[in-house]
Design goal:
173 residues, mainly alpha, Arc Repressor Mutant, subunit A, 8 helices, 75% helix, elongated
Length: 173
């Protein structure tokens, strides 16, 4: 009976939260295919630990932390270094606004190191505080602040560089 109730709670959680987890995974990885893999790995880990996750006060936070830790572990994995990056970005079936600024920001976000990307996504997409982000990443608040500052500086530089290239290209035409 307890297992059945656990499965029902888990199924309800996954059906309502998997699109959100997938979006966060996409922002971390920059690729919808990897986001799907990260989401699936996270859901699997959540299921195996649902007896613990179901009892926490903030299940969304537990799921988000599991997702971020899965992403960071994958970044450190040796097999990741030999994977070929997909040249074309397959986003078929997902409507996306055709706004250059969004695309530029997403591209710049994918160029950030994993830890900086994680702090920026958690702080500004997930709206976590410094303390919540530190807890999710299992690091100090000072580390979150420095990684966030470095990540934002890198994003600003990348976006400024892109604007300058666009302006220079426009003047040559």
């Amino acid at each position: 009976m307890a297992e059945r109730r656990r499965d029902i709670e888990f199924t309800e959680f996954v059906s309502t939260k998997s699109p959100w987890l997938r979006k966060v995974a996409y922002l971390l990885s920059g690729d919808w295919h990897r986001a799907d893999d990260l989401t699936q790995s996270t859901i699997t880990k959540l299921y195996t630990h649902w007896h613990r996750a179901g009892g926490v006060e903030n299940v969304d936070g537990y799921a988000r932390t599991t997702l971020v830790n899965t992403f960071l572990a994958e970044q450190r994995s040796p097999w990741r270094r030999v994977l070929l990056r997909r040249v074309e970005d397959d986003r078929a079936g997902l409507p996306e606004p055709d706004l250059d600024a969004i695309l530029d920001l997403r591209q710049a976000l994918t160029e950030l190191p994993a830890r900086q990307r994680a702090t920026v996504v958690l702080r500004y997409y997930c709206d976590l505080t410094v303390g919540q982000t530190a807890e999710a990443l299992n690091c100090s608040e000072g580390t979150v602040k420095s990684q966030t500052a470095r990540g934002l500086d890198a994003l600003r530089r990348a976006l400024q560089s892109h604007r300058q290239n666009v302006l220079a290209g426009g003047l040559e035409a």
